[in-house]
Amino acid sequence: MTTIDTPVSAAGERSPVKGWLAVLAVTLGIFALMTSELLPVGLLTPVGSALDVSEGTAGLMVTVPGLVAAFTAPLVTVATGHIDRRVVLAVLIGLVGAANLASAFATDFAVVLGARFLIGVSVGGFWSIAGGIALRLVPQEHVPRATAVIFGGVETASVLGVPTGTFIGDLGGWRTAFAAVGGLGLVSLACMVFLMPAVPAERTIALADLPKVFKGNAGVRGGIALTFLVITGHFLAYTFLRPILQHDGVGDGMISALLLTFGVAGICGNFIAGALVAKRLRQLVAVISLTLALAMVLLALIGDSAVTAGAVLILWGLGYGAVPVSFQTWILRVAPDAGEAASSLYVSAFNLSIALGALLGGLAVDGIATTSVLWIGAALALFALPVVGGARRTAAESAG
User: Fold this and answer.
1) Which residues, at least 6 apart from 180, have a Cβ–Cβ distance to it below 8 Å?
2) How far is CA 231 from CA 237, 360, 391, in A?
3) How far apart are CA 311 and CA 31, in angstroms?
């Protein structure tokens, strides 16, 4: 196809059809990446049993890629600043496919963690670059919608990738689930090669830009603090949702269905947030924090059957589904002149929070009790409310 070697044209000459095909290729890639990062959430118990590690130790499958992605998000972006962005994205998504296939055939947990390390590198680099690539692919008037579609890949992976992977794992075993996601990564690689035009490198952020944005912008600091609190609290509990449900007496056959229920609710939460985020951003973030905290508390208190657990997971899914679009909007709104640097910090904070949540949750599950992660996660979500209030006061003072 001619798009393989055709560079991106000027804004007025971009083909909407080819541009949107490229956007869909990137969206599929980021869906495969984020599904890979979160896949172990629904497979902790079978992987731990097969490779003879505890559920807390198995949680390292989420901790490792999140931690690695947090540090590689800005590093990969800076290090590949002179390389065609299509080439970088293709290499990163190809690495994800290979790493998941390696996990599928692993007989030792150390091999799985090594593969998860590579996935972390890919997630950090891919997400940072893909977040702003719509500007290079479609006509200017289509950029906002295309950006929303690309970030929809993150959202869809968060709320549908895990239950689908769990369902595949329940049917054919956890190795089949990893192999399926590995195949998805290779399909994404093919789409990237054949559907994306060449995207020549432009000036990217320097490492020195990151501390400047963080120190000089109170809104960015508030957004990063919110990300740490809410995302850490969410993943501290959500990573261990399968053993929590098993502890409450929910049968294995119902868990994938409950996770799918969570996913469908998350999609609804995403649409609701999209309708409110423009005019009610701070109120929306506060409601998200309260909703997540309430859901975790309710699951700890009444989630002792498939029916009650399902009702609580609908509430939880609605809350978490609203997170990506709301928090990304917060970051872009408070740093309109430094969007790339601020987004890089946000990606790092988001993935570091995933890692920290899974790590702390593993320690709590092994050292306290399985359901303890629900109470800790709820407390962290509630701690976000003063941050939202502080941001409101800062905005009022600036306006005055």
Assistant:
1) 165, 168
2) 10, 12, 18
3) 26
Residue 42 near residue 163 (C-beta atoms within 8 A): yes
CATH code of the domain containing 62: 1.20.1250.20
Q: Facing residues of 198 across strands? A: 7
- For the chain of 400 residues, list the mean pLDDT of each consecutive stretch of 10: 38 69 91 88 86 86 87 81 87 95 93 94 85 76 74 75 83 93 94 89 70 84 93 92 80 78 84 80 92 94 82 92 84 76 83 87 87 93 89 48
The answer to whether residues 175 and 278 belong to one domain is: no
Is residue 132 within 8 Å of 340, Cβ to Cβ? yes
Q: Which of 170, 204, 238 is the last residue of a domain?
A: 204
362 and 283 in contact (C-beta within 8 Å)? no
Tell me how crowded residue 17 is: count the other CB atoms within 10 A of its CB. Answer: 9
The pair of structure tokens assigned to 106 is 């692993």
Q: Distance between the two ends of the chain, CA-based, in angstroms?
A: 57
In a 13 Å sphere around the CA of 263, the CA atoms on its Cβ side amount to 22
Report DSSP letters for 384-395, one per residue.
Answer: HHHHHHHHHHHH
Written as six digits, the tokens of 2 are 């001619």
Last residue of a domain, one of 204, 226, 252: 204
- Determine the pLDDT at residue 248: 72
Q: What span, in angstroms and rounded, lies between the C-alpha atoms of 151 and 350?
A: 14
**Integer Cα distance of 268 and 292 in angstroms:** 15
Domain assignment of residue 16, given as a range: 1-204
Q: What is the pLDDT of residue 340?
A: 66
